[in-house]
Every structure is written in C-alpha cells, then in structure tokens.
Design a protein that fits this description.
By secondary structure, this protein is α+β, with helices and mostly antiparallel strands. Helices cover 25% and strands 11% of the residues. The chain has a two-stranded antiparallel ribbon with strand order 1-2. It is globular. 1% of the residues are buried.
Length: 95
Amino acid sequence: PPSLMQAQNNSLGSLLKQMILEQETSSQFYLGPAYSGAPFHFHEDAWNALAFGKKRWLMLPPNEGIYSTEPAYSFVKDKLHMLPDTSKILQCVQN
C-alpha cells in the first residue's frame, strides 16, 4: 500500500489509480448509503480508504473471526450481543 507520505502528497484520484495499477491480486471499490456495509468476514491484509462520511469498524481477534451473510446493520442491531465474549470486539470510527 502507498505510504502515508505519498497519501499526503497525492490527490485521492491519483492515489487510487496508483493502488490499482500496483495491485498484484485484486482491487475492489464499494459505495453505499448510511447504515450499509459489509457483513462480518475475514481476509488477509487490506488497505481501506474513506472518501466521505464515517465508517464504524468492528473487529474480532483473528482466531475468533466469523463469516456472516447478514447485512452489517441488522447483525449489529440484532445479533452482536449473542457473540460469546463481546468484550473482545475492537471498535473504532473512521472519519
């Protein structure tokens, strides 16, 4: 992924273009309204950027990762409390 110094010196468009051109595997782009988001999932290292708004991240320890097909908002609202040890969930908000 591009360094922080590169990110500060480049426009978002040129930074995304650089990432896509240098990507060895695959690139993805998502855009969504409020309360949208990916269901719980797991994968290798990833680089994520936020162009507008806020994003709430919920992360579990790697050995306790889960995979869900339920939309993120309804999972958090209805099922998050059912996880065995919710104290292990790391939460942060990206602005």
